[in-house]
Amino acid sequence: MTQPDLINERLKELGWELLKDRPRPTDHWEIATLLETSGKTGAGLLSELGAKDVFELSKKVYQAICDDKELRFKDEELDYKKKRLIFPIRFLKYYGIGLLFALPMTVQIMAMLLLQYSLWAWMYFSVPEASAIAIGTIASLVVTGGFAQIISRKGLFYIHQDENILTMKISYIFFVMGLIAVLLIGLVFLLFQSIFGFFPGWMVKYILIYYFLLAFLWLCFAILYMLKQTWLCTIFVALGIFIVHLVMTSGKPPLSLRAN
Question: Which residues contact residue 202 at a Cβ distance below 8 angstroms, ignoring those fewer than 6 apart?
Fold first, then answer.
């Protein structure tokens, strides 16, 4: 096989890699967009395929797939519509998939309604106790929110390129950075508390316990959501509620951090 033939085959492979789950492209501009969004714009790839920039590469890819009469795109599969599920079934399918994202919180709500307590809430907390828990919860969300977003977005970016090692590295780096930020903010809070004494000691304990534990939970959930393992989030929440239930029904009163 000659060099031009090898380049043409490589162009077809690249085109199919970009378009295997998409309809036939309308022009080379659409392929240029896909090349940019998938990160396939490196100098090495351009040099290998004899293109000076991404636009010339998109034209070559478009021409290669147009010349290949054997390629069949998603919109050209005649059997697709025959096998396609009817609307109610498709709706239930995708609604169920979407429901998985909200299932951990749904489990907690159901636990509150049935048991009057959940993983980090109890119906009979006093107003000061509930306020301390709210402060810790909100602080954990604020501090870890940015890191959770970065883990999800950057992780998904590398997952879609089958870069599993980079996915692992980026997740580990921002997970650790998130933990460091959580620790630093906690120490700053303790410093200000020691100087100004905003809250009583028992309330500070509530705030810090909920802050640190929930912050760790959010960072773990970010990785699980990135990996699309939302069912594991639900299992961990349910397991935590089960442990809380064992404590609450053990015959011993719940441990209170408030001074007697």
Answer: 257, 258, 259
